[in-house]
Amino acid sequence: MPSDIDVIFLGPSLDLDSAKQILPNALYLPPARMGDVLSVSQRLDPHSIGLIDGSFMSTMSVFHKELLYAIDQGSWVLGAGSMGALRAAECHRYGMIGLGEIFEKLVSGEIEDDDEVALTHADASAGYRPLSDAFVTIRATIEELTREDVLTVEQANILLGLQKRRWFPDRHLAGVISDAKDLGFSKKIILGIDHCLKNHIHDPKRDDAILLLKSVVELPRSPVPEEDRPGVCFSYPFQTTLSKDTLVQSEDGLEVSLDDIRRFGILHLPDSVEITNRARLDHALVLFSRWLGGELSDEELLDGRRLVAKHFGTDEKELNGLLSSLDLDEQGMSRFIQRAAHHERLAKSWLGITRQARSTTGYLDQLRLDGRYSEVKDAAAFQHAAAQKVQFEPMPSYETMLKTFLSFGEFEFPADFKEWLVANDLGSALEFGYSVGVAVRASHALFNTGLIQAENEFITVFDDDEPMMARGR
Q1: What is the pTM for the complete model shown?
Q2: Where are the domains of the chain?
Q3: Residue 2 binned pLDDT confidence (cut-offs 50, 70, 90)
Q4: DSSP notation for 180-247
Q5: Which residues contact 337 (CB under 8 A, 6 or more apart)?
Q6: Helix (H) or strand (E) segment spanning residue 23
Q7: Most buried one in 9, 16, 252, 444, CB count within 10 A?
Q8: C-alpha angle with apex 271: 270 to 277, nearest 5 degrees?
């Protein structure tokens, strides 16, 4: 049963003070990235999720199945304004509620390009203040100029064409006046445009964001009816997203993804090889047990639950609370208990098998069993938070970053690097470089360690332009 919390992902479309005047008790979060909706759904089980603004380019965008997963959990999911309108246009047939002018134009085909809602903006400290203007706002304002007979339709189309040809960060309403001057429009027209920009800007993103907030108040307080839920197919890519991209919080309230915890462990824990091997063996045992004896019986599941409770030294009635504190949802708890049951099944047989498996879930489960999960999660979250405060100028080479990281003495560079990447499911060399960069920037922020410049390109593993492949998509 969802809670009473309403979550709104909001950025430049509407200022926070205005939003709170409309929906004061909502939880307002920054523009959504991939994994954010999943994380909110699992951690808060909200009554509703309103997606207005989302992040892209610098991060992966909100995954469509995140939104459908949230609906499946009983949360009402609404979209409008910016990224929300885009995703609602793509997902409304599956139960996402789309609202506003932009959504309607996307569905009708009047708007076809995603870039029409895109803009650049400042960071959270500046309230996500827009630094450029979305094309939907520019078009709506220029159309207003035609209705007021400031511009002819032909003149309006010329000005729109000039803006459309620009990259979205270079689009500005102020540029309409500059374009009009460059085209030789009359002084009367220039003054008319200037007056409109000062007094009659039509901002559909803002209007649609306000509509979404007002619509949240009108939602039923009960969850989405079972018959109206989409029934998400748990494909391998989506299971990968669930296991890797979900964000969890440290004791200090810092967020970190499940896969970043695993990557931190691989780079910093001295027994990481043993943890990985145990995770592989665990995965192999579960697969073989299913092949050997099929799905678990109710009695076997009860045995598995007793074994897990015994391992943690807790009463079975308290087990769910303990597993929840280790960032396991109901599905994760079931998987965790099933693993113990499969182990018990095979332990009573004479058979055994090992097989390599690459799984964030398996690695983190081993940390959970060892009682080290919370410690590693907190350390990974702290490191990522510290790293965000550092931006080297100019950007160091990968060789310099790697040489600096190796100087910390926590990690020994493997003889067969690419084989090691595959064995540890770390994706490409560039993805490994990302994790190394986080460690180096955090060390600089915390200890002012600086950089050790690489005199020569002593390693060339970063020269192959490999794609990001660790997510299985």
Answers
A1: 0.68
A2: 6-120+206-231, 135-202, 270-371
A3: low
A4: HHHTT--HHHHHHHHHHHHH----HHHHHHHHHHHHHHTS-SSPPPGGGS------HHHHHHHHHT-E
A5: 301, 304, 305, 308
A6: none
A7: 9
A8: 145
